[in-house]
Specification:
Layout (H helix, E strand, L loop, with lengths): L1 H15 L9 H8 L3 H14 L10 E4 H10 L2 E2 L12 H12 L7 E7 L2 E6 L1 H11 L11 H14 L22 H8 L2 E7 L5 H12 L7 H8 L3 H12 L1 H7 L1 H6 L9 H15 L7 H9 L17 H30 L13 H14 L5 H6 L1 H13 L12 H26 L9 H8 L22 E5 L14 E5 H5 L4 H9 L9
Parallel strand pairs: 2-4, 3-5
Antiparallel strand pairs: 1-5, 3-4, 6-7
Amino acid sequence: MFRGLLLVAIHFVLSSGFLGERPKSKAASRVLHDVNEDAAARYEDALVELESEALYRLGCQQSDLSDFCNKLERGSLNLFPEYQRAFVWEPAKSSRLVATVLCNRFIPPLVLHEKSKGVFDVVDGKQRLTTLLGFFMSRKDARFPGDPVIKEKMIKLLPSLSRLSKLDESYEALNGLSFDDLDLDRQRAFESYAMSYMVIPLDTPRADVFEVYEDINSGGTDLTQQQVRRAVFHGPYMKMIDTLKDTCTDFHAIRNPKAFQSGTYQTCKKDSDGELVLRAFAFRNNGDKFKPSIKKFLNRELEGSEDYGISPRGKKKGNEQQRLILLQKMVAEQRHEFESVIRVARQVFGTSAFRKKKESLSNTMWDAKYCAIAELLAVHREVDFTRAKDHIAKALEYSIQFGFFSEDDEKTTAIKFLARKEHLKRIFQDALQEASVQRDTRRQFSPKLKQQLFEEQNGLCGLCEQTIDEQRLDEANYVHIDHIIPHSKGGRTTESNAQLTHSECNLHKGSKHVEQNKLTLPVSEERRQ
């Protein structure tokens, strides 16, 4: 936290011109001329890529403490964002801050982020502002926010903030002091105390906002990158990720089998499970375009996807409401796909899913296997994977022991990701086909089924739905008994999977021939049920 506050303070001093212009002495000029131009050019390129132009010369502002109280009452100040930790300061620490303000001394600036027009989240300084507002709002004539949730949270905090306590010997004379115990001048001075703050503007690129959050966090609460993402990109997409990591039991069973088995599974406090879910979506959508670093790659997946209704997969489309509908549809589709892929992975691989040689989860195996299964589920059913699980598991085990994965590393590049995914797709596809053939090698139906199927189908062709001439059932090449679900896709050679068709319809299945027959032949009112 110290580093973040120091950066803000230095920025304030420099931008205000307090120190004046730096003297351009001859000595300073000589130093400039002695710069290593090659090194300067190299580092300049790096700085240009890292700097935040949108935040250049962003200066500090000031408002009275009472102004912040009014913002909280009106609902334009979000003191309790979902993504932030609760109020955690001990009474000694909060009391000391109140004493500092009562004694007219400086406290570090706040950092606010305008998340929507006129509504601000407290990014840095939440504990400080909560302390001061809690002490101020404990007065007898205090007004509370209209939002019942915010009101409830503030009322719950007031008992611990209404009176100073546990102050050290330098301030112990103030123990027990409440706002109503101050004389009128002191009360006015407290509520008019000038709070310095900086605002991250509404239109600031999310990549810049992420870096600011990370800078502030670098010396303080030690949040992980995923926890910072939850603050910067909080919206429908991130909420879906949180829901999956919290509720998808197949994911729990794969991520920590022992804890799941014993009923002691817990979500990760550092949000590594949420980052794993995000990785799946990021590589599914844009794995072929991956460029280091993984931090920026995951951020790009989330950029623009939250409350503005912009899909990570594309550009803005339509008006605000249409974009939100598009986002909600995309979120629902990705959630359904995730649950299907993870369910298949657990059914087929059990506790070894996404692992190499029964070690911890492998990120590279997670990325590639998730995408391989997702793509195959577009043409195969979940039950096909379950039936072929022995073949699939055996093929992957061989690859890990002796084949492709025996020489693979944990490095992530677009080329390596695609190679892993395509290898897995190929061995899984081969295993699915092998299992399908072994399940049912018999492809021919008994000719005795013709009459039975004719009656069940009310004398209609199963493809063109036109009349079959019963007198010609035994005629060669007039009718065929066909698989409803193709044999090549796991369809069984059983009565329940059989249909009677014109031979010509069966031979031209999938072509325009059947459609033309439907147009030129009289359509029967009765269809096969």
